[in-house]
Design goal:
By secondary structure, this protein is α+β, with helices and mostly antiparallel strands. It contains 14 helices and 36 strands. Strands 20-19-18-17-14-11-10-21 form an eight-stranded parallel β-sheet. Strands 22-23-24-29-26-27 form a six-stranded antiparallel β-sheet, with helices on one face. The termini are far apart.
Length: 699
């Protein structure tokens, strides 16, 4: 090539001074060459996107880490890129390299697919990353690597079809705390567990190379490199491939609002304390929630980087979409420290996010684009109309409800929030929230026992999963995880508590999640647009309808019993899903009593005919809910204080049992009314046997 001949001529004419000549020859980027590492046969071509830089050398093991004229890179005519053809390398040989910029700063490739970190790589176990290349002794700081002739990953499950967005049932995972060994491949061994929960998508908290090893991942440095702390590149591809084989999509939590100090683009425009005059970053963040260095998304250079990153993971790793962290931060409207101002309608921010969404749709039309946004309703609604999904945090409202307060849960309905489509991914826990079981122990309307906490968690799960629309759950919520988010520091390592899966009571909570997950996957009524919610008081009711099929959820979130009139849309026989028992609602009045924390999922069709053994109420008809009203029989008051009255019962015997199965009272039924004295009995729950029926009595 001409430039090589010219360099040879320089060396012949100038001899030992040739290495000092530093003559950069401007040349257009060859066809087909992109930023980053390019493999052309056995040749390696490097390309660095570096606006406003004057002079760049490739240094590395091929140059003995020295600045040499032979490895001076060509600036392109647009002055945005530098490139060089390094020549041929043996197949399978891993080579370390950096870029020396303007003779002063050596950085790893911003688009490296693998980096070597001299400080933190030694902490990575060999079982996680076997035969990890040793950091070169002559290199200073983090280096990038390339490997010519690497064998491509053999994808197997290429026929995978993504779940419809409105059907998403996402499980959010932090690899560090979820699986023993903290490895991509170990997570692949858990797929049957997710399938039982009805999960059809995993959302991985950030796995791009982040600072250090122990992290949530929101401090990224290299946006195209899977973090080695979790394993090799092909291990992550294996996980994604296995997920697709099980019908599970993979969504990456991606951080494009900020970067940490080791990001090459932060370092390339550093003034000693922060980025300055940077093509990529603001010197000062435009909003109050930036933790590291804030990207300027109005900049065409940032937009190039965002598009490059988004295209890469969708094509190279076949991921199914992204959850964009702190998308409300993609703004140049400076709100300073005013959080309220930051959340107001921002037309420029909408334009920026729509641009990203449009670019993604060009190379992957069905990819999920999920925003952690939390802005005003009309802004979120406009983004949703473009096909984006939005996180919807129901944690506070749900917590207050199950704590025993009259908290409205209407915000869980996309319709009540003014959205035309089910574009809100609702969750009652995420990585950012305190765990519900922890908050049931503090600030509740009463002191709940351990068993009561788990019953309240069952109520929360069933209510939340009954509401139509996509869902996301945080890891171990199905087992009632009760380790505070603040243990060992907010982002610190948390114990997996795998022993919870062997606890019989926690198993019942998990089975509620499993049953509801499977129902949502199998029954289209859970995606119906025809539903109503009455959730402002202590009693919550949700009615789903699809043709002649109906589902009614009722619950008492109070710490006192409540008399309820269920919104049955049709009379006849209904079925309590968790007990498998029928309930006759043919009576003119179906007023019932719900004990504190009691809930039911009632269906107009018989989906289950056996008692699943996961809720404490067992009886076969509306007596299951307290007072018997049909067949002219009444039992009242319930709860009872000193006396219980039975009206309209046929001649026979009535017996009262405690929860240990002991008979504590026997009485012959009388014509008209039978009065049962409860004086002297301890306060608690009793079971009244009346003929062949059982009634649960609260005293």
């Amino acid at each position: 090539m001409l430039f090589k001949s010219f360099r040879t001529l320089c060396f012949l004419l100038l001899g030992p001074w040739a290495s000092m000549a530093q003559i950069a020859i401007t040349q257009a980027l060859p066809a087909g060459i992109r930023e980053g590492v390019n493999y052309v046969g056995d040749r390696v071509v490097l390309c660095l996107y570096a606006p406003e830089k004057q002079d760049v050398y490739a240094i590395g093991e091929f140059s003995n880490w020295e600045k040499k004229v032979a490895f001076q890179m060509h600036p392109t005519p647009d002055k945005l890129r530098f490139w060089i053809d390094l020549g041929s390398f043996p197949a399978g040989q891993e080579v370390a390299y950096q870029y020396l910029i303007d003779g002063q700063l050596a950085v790893a490739d911003p688009l490296a697919e693998k980096i070597l970190d001299p400080q933190f790589d030694p902490q990575i176990p060999g079982s996680t990353y076997p035969n990890l290349k040793t950091h070169p002794l002559k290199a200073d700081g983090i280096v990038s690597t390339f490997t010519a002739g690497a064998i491509a990953y053999p994808w197997k499950n290429i026929a995978f079809k993504r779940p419809k967005p409105e059907n998403l049932h996402i499980y959010e995972v932090l690899l560090r705390d979820f699986v023993a060994g903290k490895r991509y491949r170990a997570l692949a061994d858990s797929l049957s567990y997710f399938k039982k929960l009805g999960i059809n998508a995993l959302e991985l908290m950030p796995v791009m190379e982040f600072s250090a090893n122990d992290s949530w991942g929101y401090n990224p440095n290299f946006l195209l490199a899977p973090d080695k702390f979790y394993g090799e590149k092909n291990d992550l591809k294996y996980l994604i491939d296995q997920c697709h084989g099980q019908g599970i999509a993979v969504i990456l939590d991606i951080v494009l609002n900020q970067a940490d100090a080791q990001n090459p683009y932060v370092r390339m425009y550093w003034d000693g304390s922060k980025p300055a005059n940077s093509p990529f970053f603001n010197s000062t963040a435009t909003h109050p929630y930036s933790v590291f260095y804030d990207f300027n998304h109005e900049s065409p250079h940032t937009q190039w980087l965002v598009d490059t990153v988004c295209r890469y993971w969708l094509t190279e790793f076949q991921v199914d979409g992204y959850r964009f962290d702190l998308s409300k931060g993609f703004t140049q409207v400076n709100s300073g420290n005013n959080v309220d101002q930051w959340g107001k309608y921002d037309g420029s921010r909408i334009k920026l996010l729509k641009r990203i969404n449009d670019q993604i749709r060009r190379y992957d039309p069905s990819a999920y684009v999920i925003l952690e946004h939390f802005a005003v309703a009309n802004e979120e609604q406009e983004l949703a109309q473009s096909g984006m999904l939005l996180w919807s945090n129901a944690k506070f409202d749900m917590t207050r409800s199950v704590q025993g307060f009259a908290q409205d849960l209407g915000g869980m309905s996309y319709q009540q929030r003014g959205f035309e489509q089910p574009s809100l991914i609702t969750y009652i826990e995420s990585h950012d929230e305190e765990r519900i079981l922890v908050e049931l122990g503090t600030g509740a309307a009463k002191t709940f026992t351990a068993t009561e906490k788990l019953e309240r968690a069952k109520l929360a799960a069933t209510l939340w999963l009954t509401v139509p629309g996509p869902k996301m759950m945080w890891q171990w919520g199905e087992l009632g995880y009760d380790i505070s988010i603040n243990q060992n520091g907010r982002t610190g390592v948390k114990p997996a508590k795998t022993e919870y899966a062997r606890d019989p009571e926690r198993q019942k909570l998990m089975q509620v999640y499993q049953e509801m997950g499977q129902l949502r996957a199998a029954k289209s009524i859970f995606q119906t647009p025809t539903f109503t919610m009455q959730t402002s008081g202590m009693v919550k009711q949700i009615l789903l309808s699809s043709g002649t099929s109906h589902v009614l959820f009722i619950a008492n979130t109070s710490i006192e019993s409540q008399v309820v009139t269920p919104n049955f849309p049709q009379k006849g026989i209904w079925f309590d899903y968790f007990t498998g028992k029928p309930a006759d609602v043919s009576g003119t009045t179906n007023q019932i009593n719900l004990l504190p924390g009691e809930f039911h999922l009632l269906t107009s069709e018989s989906w289950n005919t056996k008692d699943l053994g996961i809720v404490p109420w067992k009886t076969p008809n509306l007596a299951i809910l307290g007072t018997i009203i049909e067949k002219s029989v009444r039992v009242y008051p319930n709860p009872a204080v000193d006396e219980l009255i039975i009206e309209g019962a046929p001649v026979g015997e009535v017996q009262l049992f405690d929860l240990l199965g002991r008979i504590v009272y026997t009485e012959a039924l009388k014509t008209g009314q039978t009065h049962i004295s409860l004086a002297g009995l301890p306060r608690g729950i009793y079971m009244l046997k009346l003929g062949g029926e059982w009634v649960r009595i609260s005293h």
